[in-house]
Amino acid sequence: MKARRYTEADLSAMIPIWNEIVEEGIAFPQEELLTMETGKEFFAAQSHTAVIEDETGTILGLYILHPNNVGRCGHICNASYAVSSASRGKHIGEKLVLDCIREAKRLGFLILQFNAVVESNIHARHLYERIGFHQLGTIPKGFRMKDGHYENICPYYYEL
Fold it and tell me: What predicted TM-score, i.e. pTM, was given to this entire model?
């Protein structure tokens, strides 16, 4: 498996993976699904968008990386990760996060911050903590789940 910068040719594989996470309604704050047009704009607008593919060229996951804020806080970045449900459990998320850290450093960011990790997303939380992210606290009822109930979110950061 290798991570690389995405190309427009990858969009037809990326958008269904992204939309799968949105439809699950348990991790991303977005509620609107991407179309080819909105996906092209969305992924192009990021500081860095990458995919991870297997030896056959099949895209298994992706991430986006962008500033978390502007001006005096512009040195802090944010990222989102998506792994296809068929590819989960193969440490693809870890490869995506580690590649993202390298890219964030290359782009000159000093901190990678996650604003809204859902408390019940234990696989992501364990991964982030294993890599060395620090939890900042808990925001009660910070995330509305697909079924309408609210769950706590746990912001995390990593000093690059």
Answer: 0.94
